Amino acid sequence: MVTAKLVTLLQTSKIVCKEDEVNAGMQMLERSGDFADGVNEYSGRMMAHGASVFATFDKDAVKLLTERGIAAMIPRL
């Protein structure tokens, strides 16, 4: 439901966004993940030198990202 409303909102002409980041977030939502995890992973990868691994304390995000072939890990404390 949230995904459908977000798609509708983004299709309006008055909304400007970074489509690649939003798409990364939407892909996570579609897999029952968190929108922010998808955006953060994508943004990190696109930085000047690019992050080679996405680090998060969210076990579900690590699982969903690694299933897509994206390097993700839970940092050791």
Features:
77 residues; 55% helix; globular; mainly alpha
Account of the 3D structure:
With 77 residues, the chain is mainly alpha-helical. The chain has one domain. Helices cover 55% and strands 5% of the residues. The chain is built from four helices and two strands. Strands 1-2 form a two-stranded parallel sheet. β1, α4 and β2 (72-73) form a beta-alpha-beta unit. α2 (19-30) packs across α3 (35-46). The longest helix has 12 residues, at 19-30. The N and C termini lie far apart (37 Å). The relative contact order is 0.14.
Number of domains: 1
Helix content: 40-55%
The major sheet is characterized as:
2 strands, parallel
State mean pLDDT (0 to 100 scale). 88
The share of residues in extended strands comes to: 5-15%
Strands of the widest sheet, in order across it, are: 1-2
Termini Cα gap = 37 Å
Number of E-type strands: 2
Q: Which spans of ≥5 residues are poorly predicted at pLDDT below 50?
A: none
Estimate the global geometry from the Cα principal axes.
globular
Give the H and E element order. HHHEHE
Assign the structural class, choosing from mainly alpha, mainly beta, alpha/beta, alpha+beta, or little secondary structure: mainly alpha
Cα-atom radius of gyration: 13 Å
Number of helices: 4
Short synopsis of the structure:
With 77 residues, the protein is mainly α. 55% of the residues lie in helices and 5% in strands.
